[in-house]
C-alpha cells in the first residue's frame, strides 16, 4: 500500500518533470520519514486497463494527490480520477483528496469550489516565491 497516489498530466513534460524531480524527491527521498508514492509510469501494471490501474491506485493509497494545471483540470483523466477519489471519500467517510495548484488560474474550477467546501486545508498552491517552497513541502508532508 502507498501513502499517496499522484494524479497529474503525464502528457505535459514540464508537469511530469516537476512531479518526478521535485515532488517525488521531496516526499520519497529528502526526509527521514519517507512517503511512498504511487506513480503511473513507475507503479502501474501495463497488463491492466487504465481504469483498473486507476481504481487500484486510488484504493491502495491513503491519499490521492492531484497536481493541477488548467488543461489537466478539464481532462477526462482528471475527472475520472476525481470522481473515483470522491466516491472513496463518501464510502469511507475519510478525507482522501489533496489538490496542488501549479497554476493560480484554477480558482474558478467547479471541482475546487466543491473541494473548498469539504476541506479547505487540502488545497495547496505552489508558491511563486522560491523562499516559500520549504513551507510548501512541509505542509504537503503533513497533509499526506
CATH level 4 superfamily: Toll/interleukin-1 receptor homology (TIR) domain
Number of helices: 7
Number of strands: 5
CATH class: Alpha Beta
Order of helices and strands: EHEHHEHHEHEH
| Uncertain residue ranges | none
Rg, Cα atoms, Å: 14 Å
The CATH topology corresponds to Rossmann fold
> Which CATH architecture would you pick?
3-Layer(aba) Sandwich
> Distance between the terminal alpha carbons, to the nearest Å?
14 Å
Keywords:
Rossmann fold; globular; 5 strands; alpha/beta; 5-stranded parallel β-sheet; 7 helices
What does this protein look like?
The chain is an alpha/beta fold and 144 residues long. It has one domain: Rossmann fold. 50% of the residues lie in helices and 17% in strands. It has 7 helices and 5 strands; from the N terminus they run βαβααβααβαβα. The protein has helices at 13-29, 40-43, 50-59, 70-73, 76-92, 110-118, 133-143, and strands at 2-7, 37-38, 61-68, 97-101, 123-125. Strands 2-1-3-4-5 form a 5-stranded parallel β-sheet, sandwiched between helices. Helix 6 links the parallel strand 4 (97-101) and strand 5 (123-125). It is globular and about 40 Å long. Residues 1-144 form the TIR domain.
